Input
Amino acid sequence: MEDKGTSLAVHYRLAPQAEPALKAKIAAMFDQIAVPDLEVMYGKAVIEIKSSHFSKGTAVRELMKSPPFLGRKPIFVGDDTTDLSVFKILPPLGGTGFSVERPLPGADGFFSSPHEVRSWLAGLCRHEGRGEGSGRQ
Output
């Protein structure tokens, strides 16, 4: 269990066999409590219980209103269903999104592995360090 402050996450990456039982128990609890404005999201080896009024997409939208992000174009890399809300809000912000290991709806492209993402980021850092343009938008 992970208390994220604004949500609660139940991780089962180290116990994938527990997935069906966890999903069933959380669904049964949800049916009993019927709390409005809460939702259950199923991600990569995680079940997250969160407010339906807040998502990663709303968080990115808010960040883009404040310095140092104001006036810039976001680039987002995500690998889970919890990232879909960000891919949806990127076009109006002039941003670009990439998924990892598989194409996700709304992503402009994808990286085949986390290693490929790290290599791409390292290349951006090398480019920035050589002074070949600012690399910022």
